[in-house]
Design goal:
The complex is a heterodimer of chains A (about 325) and B (about 260). With about 325 residues, chain A is an all-alpha fold. Helices cover about 80% and strands about 0% of the residues of chain A. Chain A contains 16 helices and two strands. Chain A has a two-stranded antiparallel ribbon with strand order 1-2. In chain A, helix 3 crosses helix 13 and helix 9 runs antiparallel to helix 12 (about 210-235). Chain A starts with a helix and ends with a helix. By secondary structure, chain B is α/β, with parallel strands linked by helices. Chain B has a domain at about 5-80 and about 170-260: Rossmann fold (3-Layer(aba) Sandwich), CATH 3.40.50. Helices cover about 40% and strands about 25% of the residues of chain B. Chain B has eleven helices and ten strands. Chain B has helices spanning about 40-50, 75-80, 95-100, 110-115, 120-140, 155-165, 185-200, 210-220, 235-240, 245-250, 255-260, and strands spanning about 5-15, 15-25, 30-35, 55-60, 65, 80, 170-175, 205-210, 220-225, 230-235. Chain B has a six-stranded mixed sheet, sandwiched between helices. Chain B has a four-stranded antiparallel sheet with strand order 2-1-4-5, with helices on one face. In chain B, helix 3 (about 95-100) runs parallel beside helix 6 (about 155-165). The longest helix of chain B is centred in the middle third of the chain and has 20 residues, at about 120-140. Chain B is globular and about 60 Å long. Chain B starts with a strand and ends with a helix. The chains are: A mainly alpha (about 325), B alpha/beta (about 260). The interface between A and B is medium-sized, with 29 and 39 residues. Bound molecules: adenosine-5'-triphosphate (ATP) and magnesium ion (MG). Adenosine-5'-triphosphate binds near residues 16, 39, 40, 42 and 85 of chain B.
């Protein structure tokens, strides 16, 4: 990829905007932003399978939970370092995602939504189960510690643990977004969308729908699972009740609000689902849910294609003016 | 050995026999017209050849392989390309992306290679984009290349489908009513295009078309169907003067063949 000067400038600006909060925000707000980026990553995962590949999942909270628990168990019970746990969390979520993708081949649309829904409902109960209690800590959950920044880093850049966590989340998420971007722009991304748009024509182009759909599920679960792993460390605690069915719906809302089948939209969706409920709460302490619902309805009424649709419209306006 | 051998194909839908024992061959580099009144079974036969339907009886051999039981997605890599009668484009994509999607079978790079943009994935992508640019020029789609395909007129969308099928360099191209919705001048251009494509892509074409003068002009041989049965098979002249063909078309109230004859 050759970087034009304009694009290079855009990348620099993006980097600056991403790093500035390290020094601008105090601890609590930096933590919130950290969680928003994590939500964005989870939404990105959902977008791969539901947005780009058209397989509706109402159960991505389950992959988030599994990722969170794999990292927590390895860190709390086996003393692993945070970074060492990530590949394991990703691999296990990828395998579970693949396994869920298999029955998904036979179930279309709403049935698949129901199957994934039941997964989201089942996982928190499994996590509480007696048989797993020795690892998962049962209802009590597990406590863990944010990693401290290594000395070589603090000698150059004085960071506290919160700032270091934000930086880690930024790096891991940044890499995932970049890889997803590459995937979507290439041969496989086109095939995922083609399969969603017209399966018969996709097969006539030589696309192996079964392989694509299960692959999409695996990648999607992997990304959302990594987000879960990050969240466990950022929060320094996991418990079954952190991963209710509502979490899956939150990801879904983030995807729709940000823009179905949009990488950039996933980022916006993550910010939205984290900050807008807070805004709603500041407007009405008595009924924040009502306010949140109203903001959501107004937003989707004004921007039916989500945030990404707005960006797309502005871009087409700009390019058509140039021509 | 012919490129395509269709043998005794029977397809039934419940009580309806859509194709009732049809056999014919298409040779390498040949343009073969497939004609017949509405409901004769042409599209059904296309769907059998391209692996979308499994026939109740009979077999298809393509380029030396028995393909009757191949999975659908194995047909494109074997060298079979097709278009659809009622357009089957990828509606969320631009013209260029649709054509690039057609290059899928020419590529190998999987999830990991794409995500990491490994050298072979990039090389594949570059080659596909190069061929897409050539096809955009050949089919006069350059002006609309980066527009959403869904906003374009029917005739243009048909050309996009043809480009999407051609980009994988098929050995045999199945075209289901490519002249549908075109005016007279455009049909003439299409005839020229077929000759050009056959020459430069070195492929055979199996052409379903109601536009009889087009079929008779470009085809090396013509197969005629009626009620799922083959009623004629030969040069355009032979088929045009076949009494069965004339009867099928007159009986159908379709004047075109009689007119062409
Ligand atoms: N999926 C299907 N289910 C049931 N019947 C079908 C199906 N597809 C085709 N048929 C029937 O099979 C017969 C042949 O249809 P087909 O579409 O192959 O004809 P065709 O020659 O392509 O006609 P046209 O020129 O109108 O496109 C028709 O009687 C049609 O109603
Ligand atoms: Mg037809």
């Amino acid at each position: 990829m050759s970087l034009s000067p304009a694009r290079f400038l855009l990348v620099l600006l993006g980097l600056a905007a991403a790093l500035a909060p390290l020094w601008v925000l105090e601890s609590f707000h930096l933590f919130q932003l950290t969680m928003a980026v994590i939500m964005a990553l989870a939404v990105l995962g959902l977008n791969i399978v539901t947005g780009y590949n058209g397989q509706i999942s109402l159960g991505h909270g389950a992959f988030f939970a599994i990722g969170a628990y794999v990292t927590s168990i390895l860190m709390a019970q086996a003393d692993w370092s945070f970074y060492a746990t990530l590949p394991f969390a990703a691999a296990i979520c990828g395998m579970v995602g693949y396994a869920v993708g298999l029955p998904a081949l036979r179930l279309g649309g709403l049935y698949l939504a129901l199957v994934t829904f039941s997964l989201a409902v089942a996982v928190p109960q499994l996590l509480k189960h007696k048989a797993l209690e020795a690892w998962t800590g049962g209802v009590q959950g597990l406590f863990l510690m944010k990693p401290d920044p290594p000395r070589w880093l603090t000698s150059v850049l004085p960071l506290n643990a919160d700032q270091y966590m934000y930086l880690n989340v930024l790096i891991v998420s940044g890499i995932c977004f970049l890889l997803a971007w590459n995937l979507i722009r290439g041969r496989i991304g086109r095939a995922l969308m083609a399969t969603r748009d017209h399966p018969t024509a996709a097969e006539a182009m030589g696309m192996d729908i079964a392989a694509l759909k299960t692959g999409a599920f695996a990648v999607s679960a992997m990304i959302t699972g990594i987000a879960g792993a990050l969240s466990a460390v950022a929060v320094e605690f996991v418990a079954p009740d952190s991963f209710t069915f509502l979490l899956s719906i939150t990801f879904f809302v983030g995807m729709v609000v940000g823009g179905v089948a949009s990488i950039l939209g996933s980022l916006f969706g993550g910010l939205f689902v984290l900050f807008v409920p807070n805004i709603a709460e500041s407007i009405s302490r008595a009924a924040p849910g009502v306010i949140y619902g109203m903001i959501l309805i107004i937003f989707l009424f004004v921007l039916p294609e989500g945030f990404a649709g707005l960006v797309r419209r502005i871009l087409t306006r700009l390019t058509s003016r140039r021509n | 050995m012919p490129l395509l051998e269709v043998r005794d194909i029977v397809v039934r839908f419940g009580g309806v026999t859509a194709v009732a024992g049809v056999s014919f061959d298409v040779a390498e580099g040949q343009i073969c017209g497939l004609i017949g009144p509405n409901g004769a079974g042409k599209t059904t036969l296309f769907n059998v050849i391209s692996g979308i339907y499994r026939p109740n009886e009979g077999s298809v051999r393509f380029d030396g392989h028995i393909t009757t039981n191949e999975p659908r997605h194995r047909m494109a890599p074997l060298g079979l390309g097709r278009t659809f009668q009622n357009l089957a484009l990828f509606k969320s994509m631009t013209v260029r992306e649709n054509i690039l999607a057609g290059a899928h079978s020419a590529g190998r790079a999987g999830f990991l290679a794409n995500a990491l943009r490994l050298p072979h994935a990039r090389a594949e992508d570059r080659a596909a984009r190069q061929r897409a640019a050539e096809l955009l020029a050949l089919l006069q789609l350059e002006a609309v290349a980066d527009l959403p395909v869904i906003d374009l007129p029917f005739g243009t969308q048909k050309r996009v489908e043809m480009a999407r099928a051609l980009i994988s360099r098929p050995k045999l191209l199945l075209l289901d009513e490519p002249a549908g919705g075109l005016n007279h001048g455009e049909v003439d251009e299409l005839a020229t295009l077929f000759q050009h494509v056959r020459q430069s892509f070195k492929l055979g074409i199996l052409l379903v078309e109601h536009h009889m003068s087009l079929v008779m002009r470009v085809s090396d041989k013509v197969v005629a169907l009626d009620f799922g049965k083959k009623i004629a098979d030969g040069t355009p002249d032979e088929v045009r003067s076949s009494p069965e063909v004339i009867r099928a078309y007159l009986g159908d109230g379709h004047g075109d063949a009689a007119h062409a004859a």
